Amino acid sequence: MRHKSIKTLGVLIAFFTAAFSVNAAELTHGEAQAAIRSADFACNHVINLKSSGDNTWMVKCNSGIFSITRDKNGKFTVSQVE
Question: Where does the signal peptide begin and end (predicted)?
């Protein structure tokens, strides 16, 4: 019975690790808005948020369109596209 419990625990750990990895690559509207504002751009409302690849997003705000990139340390780089 103990062998079955350890195997089940291993499966659960693998599942939660995979789920966390997927979520770690996502960016919320609030995080996008905060990153844009922290870069001294105006953004009162995120209208659309689309992934452009590995830790890169295109964000449409009420004030324009921005490219956001997150490095391996979690630091954001923001540039205004339009």
Answer: 1-24
